[in-house]
Design a protein that fits this description.
It is a single chain. By secondary structure, the chain is α/β, with parallel strands linked by helices. It folds into 2 domains: 7-14 and 76-111 and 235-444, Rossmann fold (3-Layer(aba) Sandwich); 22-68 and 114-233, Rossmann fold. It has 19 helices and 15 strands. It has helices at 44-47, 53-60, 70-76, 88-94, 115-127, 141-153, 163-168, 170-178, 192-200, 208-220, 234-239, 242-254, 269-283, 301-304, 347-354, 365-379, 387-404, 422-429, 440-447; strands at 7-8, 18-20, 65-67, 84-86, 99-104, 132-137, 156-162, 182-186, 225-227, 260-264, 290-296, 306-311, 320-325, 359-363, 409-414. A 7-stranded mixed β-sheet has the order 1-4-5-15-10-11-14, sandwiched between helices. A 4-stranded parallel β-sheet has the order 8-7-6-9, with helices on both faces. It has a two-stranded antiparallel sheet with strand order 2-3. Helix 5 runs parallel beside helix 6. The structure holds pyridoxal-5'-phosphate. Pyridoxal-5'-phosphate is lined by residues 112, 114, 141-142, 231, 264-271, 339-340, 384, 386-387, 415-416. Pyridoxal-5'-phosphate binds at residues 112, 114, 141-142, 231, 264-271, 339-340, 384, 386-387, 415-416.
Amino acid sequence: MASDQTRFLLPENEIPKQWYNIVPDLPTPPTPVLHPGTGQPVGPADLLPLFPMEIIKQEVSTDRWIDIPDPVRDAYRLFRPSPLIRARRLEKLLDTPAHIYYKYEGGSPSGSHKINTALPQAFYNKEEGTKRITTETGAGQWGTALSIACQMVGVECTVYMVKVSFAQKPHRRTLMEAFGAQVFASPTNLTNSGRKILADDPDSPGSLGIAISEAVEDAATHDDAKYALGSVLNHVLMHQTVIGQEALRQFDLAGEYPDEIYGCVGGGSNFAGLAFPFIRENLAGRTKTKIVACEPAACPTLTKGVYTFDFGDTVGNTPIVKMHTLGHNFIPPGIHAGGLRYHGAAPLLSQLVDGGHVQAVAYSQMETFEAALQFARSEGIMPAPEPAHALRGGINAALDAKAKGEKRVILIGVCGHGNFDMVAYEKYLSGELEDYAYPEEKIHQALETLPTMGLAARV
Ligand SMILES: *Cc1c(COP(=O)(O)O)cnc(C)c1O
């Protein structure tokens, strides 16, 4: 029996005590990560200049459950458990027999899910003596989350912010600085990577791949500094599984179980955080939930990319991983879902898409903004442009249920609010926003840049 409640809330003592690692439950083991210079599998020693030992251990762990340290759980209390909300007003607006639920991460201090991993990453660095953490940020959510986490644990923070976002979102920069971070518009002339890009193109708008190159180089060339990544890597996806674990419990309270789950994908972390605990149920044969990854047509990594080995960054400083990729030289157009403009996708998510356990779909910018406003005008929350993709997927499913007269239970990941995205909404409302789908031939050109080394044979 479905509950007649609207918000499903858990008490603080039900904040998960462990993160869920999907690796031991995968049908096949993950592909090794390769050294960018030698093409050989990387060992812990290769990663130590960049990450604290505990993070490296988590990155390669095959344990299903990893304990969340008490100080991290304590900080989680500021905003977790996050609510699961039945979107009754959106259901009414769509006039659908479907039950729509959303898991809302926008109420965290940083306004998105990113702080779920920023806190443990800052914590482990502090424990192992790191003085300063470097990182990149696109739309600014990750930089904000890491700035807050660094401030809380007492580590310095240097953020390389993609230049177009730096210009589009000046308040994001101020927010990071308010939390004590030092913020640079990337490409900078402070690193070899940045100087190389600027030599070719002094007006480069920057990209996430370029900013990663700069942040990695900064950490690798300074002994007291380490690097933190806000998405893509196994440990980041694992930290986010607090979202899905809570949602499973909350569906118990709701007296229902999702038939379909929609999340947006940039690198894959909020999607994995929500979906992996449900995929575990699917893989164990207990459920048959349809799991859908929603991405922008302007950066169609999972739907148009190739599943092969590629660098994580643009310049080629990072390890080579097997993932869906558009090629590391791919510079996505300046669409407004800044957090979704990455050339690759998380290896664990790529593997699940390749194995058919997760479906992928791409939506154009205009249709996602339309969905975002339907959600905002019914539920009263401005979503970030990124989860607007998940909302598009979920709303389409609810409309399909209506057309077929089916009762379905739909779960949507609303991973952040859009209160810093007013320039994008202003453009949409004034009719200035345009659709853009990445041309096929340009995708093929970008794919020509995949690393050779004999091991990058297309799969
Ligand atoms: C960073 C971000 C994303 C994209 O990153 P994922 O790792 O794919 O989750 C999506 N939405 C929001 C709100 C973000 O901050």
